[in-house]
Amino acid sequence: MNHLLKVILYCIAIIAITLVHQPLVLISALIMAMGVTWPLAFKLLWRALRMVLWVGVILSVGYAIMGLLTQQFDGQYLLVLNSRLVLLSFLTSWLMHTVCWRQALARWPNAQRWLVVVRTQSDLLRQLSLQYRDAVRSRSGSPGSLRKRYCAGAAMGLAVLDKSVHNSEALTMGMRSRGVFND
Amino acid sequence: MHIADGLISPQTYLPALAVAAPLWWVALRKARHQSEHLLPRLAVFTALAMVLNTLMLPLPGGTSGHLIGVSILAMVFGPWIAFLAYSLMLLLQALVLGAGGITALPINALAMGFVGGWIAWGLFRLLRPLAPKLAIGIATFCSVLLSATLIAVVLGVQPIIATTPDGAPLFFPFGLAITLPAIVIPHAFIALAEAMITMLIVGHAQRRKWVEVQPS
Question: B191 vs chain A: nearest CA distance in angstroms?
């Protein structure tokens, strides 16, 4: 299936799901979605559960406590809320697994370019942060005071930012020399 | 602070989309007028905002929250570019990382990207002549707190606007009496942390002459 079509179907599905308030329909839809994505279904479900577990637990426990205290507990609501949360996040994890964003955005080269640059920079920032942190740790025998660690963190953050801007400017110059900005 | 999919009613997210769509269009037009030498910095600062979004801060009461990062974008690139970059970052987080959500995107973008960005930029411009460094901190603090309040209000009105005929909630279950203190009080601590980080980063950006004079 075309990647852009998958994204459009996903958007239609999640809007439709927010219009459904019957737990049986939502659970049936989840079972159907699992059937369609079968060999991957439990992997996607596990990923979906990790995405919404804390939201679902906090809301459900909070609602149950409030409901019992005020004598307005409605078990069906909890079923609707949690089945909707799991179904929506299941579809999102399916989308994350199945869609190639480079192909989905093929019609919009600017969006494609922005996605590549931001993802590259984001990965680079993380990688540089880890490398700087390891370097600081390797130079000190014992963990320093909180103030010292904050100062080292701030210095490290700014150094990473400088390096990242430098890398990004080099990347843009490379893109410019290949005529990326001429279209 | 992002709202996840499934907690917001269509009565809320569809009007929010109707408000956000023309604002995205205006922001896109403004972005087209920016010179291409801003692209590398914009990419780095958007990535930075994304990384800040994933930094979880432990809060009193055993909960945690994350930084927002839109103030940095607004002070360095202006509110329109900040709104656009932040919205795209939220979209990327929702579709690629599974954080936040598509139906909640217009609300998250308006509360954090638009209101947060404009408040940060406006207060920064207003207070800068009085105390340049402090202006960054105050603007960021107010921006985070106002964004958090908006998110709390949107969540808190769900039990009023989306219920079954017998009064049971259909989406987010808690009212304003719970959402306002539960979200705003912890975010006062987050706003303090973010104000300090923003002062550090924007101060650095000013020294490197990365901050352009933004007309708005």
Answer: 17
B214 three-class SS: coil
Q: In B45-159, at which residue ranges do the beta strands (DSSP E only) sit?
A: 56-58, 64-66
Residues of A in contact with B8 (CB under 8 A): 18
Residue B57 pLDDT: 59
Q: Under DSSP, is residue B103 helix (H, G, I), strand (E, B) or coil? A: coil
Residue among A72, A92, A158 whose CB faces B204 most closely: A158
Positive or negative: CA dihedral B137, B19, A55, B185? positive
Q: What is the pLDDT of residues B72-122, one digit of tens each?
A: 999 988 999 999 989 988 888 887 777 778 888 999 999 999 999 999 999
Profile chain A (183 residues) by mean pLDDT over runs of 10 residues: 86 89 91 90 89 83 84 84 90 88 81 75 76 76 73 80 81 76 62
Give Cα A138 distance to the centre of its chain.
32
Judged by CB atoms closer than 8 Å, whether chains meet at B5 and A15 is answered as: no
Backbone angles phi, psi at B57, to 5 degrees: -110, 125
Query: Residue A106: its pLDDT value, please?
Result: 83
Q: How many CB atoms lie under 10 A from the CB of residue B70? A: 36
ipTM above 0.90, yes or no: no
For residue range A133-162, what is the model confidence (pLDDT) as tens digits?
A: 787 778 777 766 777 777 777 887 788 788
What is the reported pLDDT for B96? 72
Owner of token pair 């990004």: A168
- Reported as half-sphere exposure (CB side, CA atoms, 13 A), residue B64 has a value of 9
Q: What DSSP assignment string belongs to A135-169? A: HHHHH-SS---HHHHHHHHHHHHHHHHHHHHHHHH
Best mutation site among B38, B44, B73 for testing chain A: the one with the most A CBs within 10 Å? B44
